[in-house]
Amino acid sequence: MMIVPDKPSDADKLTLLFAFYDPDTTDCAGTSYIETIALGVEDGNITMAKKGYSAGSGAISGFAVVGKNVVVAKSGRGEQKATISKVPGVKPPWSSGAPTPIGWRELQ
Asked: Count of CB atoms within 10 A of residue 5's CB?
């Protein structure tokens, strides 16, 4: 997901969000992550800041921005049901309200 400021200036950042799943065990009980990358311009140079957030155990199948939160859909482990849960610690790049989608495309 790419989040672009409405009226960008040199101080504003373009924020990218990615979902990852690390199947670090043989029983599909790995860990899912949300990674953020903030791109900006400082003194004419492109800057990049990366940060990762654990979304917990289970395979991630997707994520969404809900208000000022990022939520993920994950598979259950063993006999557990799939869940949707908030990813703790993700700081939204927007100051108030929620971002307004201007376009989207489903990847298959």
From this structure: 15
DSSP characters over the chain: -EE--SS--TT--EEEEEEEEE--STTS--EEEEEEEEEEEETTEEEEEEEEEEEEES-EEEEEEETTEEEEEE--STTPPPEEEE-TTPPPSSSSS-----------
CA distances to 11, 27, 28, 55 from 34, in Å:
24, 22, 18, 7
- pLDDT single digits (tens) 49-87: 899 999 988 888 888 888 788 899 988 777 878 888 999
**Torsion-angle region of residue 33: left (phi > 0), alpha (psi -120 to 50) or beta?**
beta
pTM: 0.73
